[in-house]
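Quick question: what would this complex look like in 3D?
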Amino acid sequence: LSEEQAGRDRELSGRAEDHAELAGGFARLAGLPQGDPGRRELRDRLVTACLPLAYDVASRYRDRGRAEEELRRVAVAALADAVDRYRPDRGDDFLAFAVPVVMGEVRRYCRDAGRAPRAARPLAELLGPATAELAQRLNRAPTARELAEHLHVGVEDVYEGVVAASAHQAPPPPEPADAAPRTTAVERVDGRESIGGLLDGLDERDREIVLLRFDGGLSQSRIAERLGLSQLEVSDRLSHALARLREHPGEPDGGAEAVTRRRLRAGSAISDKVGPVEHPAAQRSSGGESTQLQEATVAETGRQPAQPDRIDEVPTPATMQLTGAEFGVAAESIEPAFTVLRVSGEVDMVAAPELTEHVQQHFRAGSADRTLVFDLTDVTFLASAGLAVLAEAANLAAERGTTIRVVAPSRSVTRPLEVAGLDRVLPTYADLASAIEDR
Amino acid sequence: VIASAQTGRRFDHAAVPSDSRGDRVSTARPPTDAFVADLRLTTDPVRLYLVRSMVAAIAIREDFDLDTIEDLKLVVDEMCATLIVRARPNTELACKFEGSAQSIGLVATVLSDSPEPIPRNTFGWRLLTTLADEVSSWITPDGDGHRVHIRFSKSAAMAIPG
């Protein structure tokens, strides 16, 4: 970039509403070859210049119960995405292109945030496309810091998204409009009257925090993010609220604490981390949750309230971002020709025997002439023990003159398959539909 | 046997280098010195996720790229799984992570009843040698048993795409 141009771009930041300047900036951006060092600088300057647009959109949605800070983050990330995807040669001016994109993202966020914790992570959803975009530009996978800079969000936000293992997964397909709403934490929060005034002693915010934490299974940092508080505040309010519940049981029979704990257990059993798979086998950790929590609290910023005797008894899936997704597997038949094993979570040496069990069941049952499809879409980790199950399944199938197929869309699955050389032996597909269609 | 390691890490704000290319200097990641972190676990495979989580947490903060982080999780899982199946019951798996912005390594060890060296002709070992820059294993006497060690290191050189 020439000095003069750089000066003009700086000016641009001060006058985002100046369409002509903006258009000039985009035209220059489009003119710079990929890999030009000036490209990123100009791109970032354009994002900065349009920040007022993102803030404006965010402010329109602020009365929908979400913290404005959070809305702004979503809007800015969507804006950065729009800047990357905008093609000046397609005719639209940038604002005409960007406004619907940003509004759509914020609107979707507001809607999803009221539905499911899993969907209430627009950032996690943006990480996928952003990772792909950066990978193409850098010719390698990006780092968390590069992702954070690219999306104009904090590195911490990306850490959380990445450790939650969502960055490598394709964004979930849009839900059909008439899809039955899933039972979600927030709906359970909304149904709090049914707890029978149990949490009445708390003010509304504390009540919301308690329910999000223990019923919704959200981590403290995610609650902080959602409510626009600092994590310290959430932690303090939480320990204060729990102490209060212990001191003032709201109900005569058993008291608030006992009921709360019962509810907390129920809440944690409804783990949406297992995804669509609902199978008794998916509840592997139900017996060992309290010990798992003891370890996991170390990871959870160490800011747990100091009431170990009580807290230890509260099972919670909230620390999943560090414990990883639970393993689950469910079998279903699709047409007469296929048995699909939907596997989710981490397939390590603990989970592998269970997967083997399902494989053997398939070959034992009269269904052994079907093609066995391993749908690994929701698998976040695949260890050698898991690879061995696939290899063994392929052998068993070959003995019976059938085959197996593997749906492997994410790198956390394709990489181990590749290292094992299984990708050359097993037919792999990007999604279940193409695995089934392939005759 | 274990490389000399500093305990903890030093971070001097004044030492943040200004970037010669004029990019803004991110405060997200301070320059890091080599450091070590110990993790001791009961030899229960259910706890393997902790080792994976730990290496991912270190690698993310040392700014390793995401593909390398996936590889690191595979390596430490394989290493520790290999050790756990050889461990004497009710003993500990001791993990020493060695991290820096340039490389990440792990030395893990268990007490075993078997003096047999870890076989090199297995798929697991091939996975280790494929994904890590350096892998080695050795056995030392320990009381009435045998201490089995595996060590790997991987540099921050960005993973080759594909």
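Answer marked as accepted. The longest helix of chain B spans residues 66-86.
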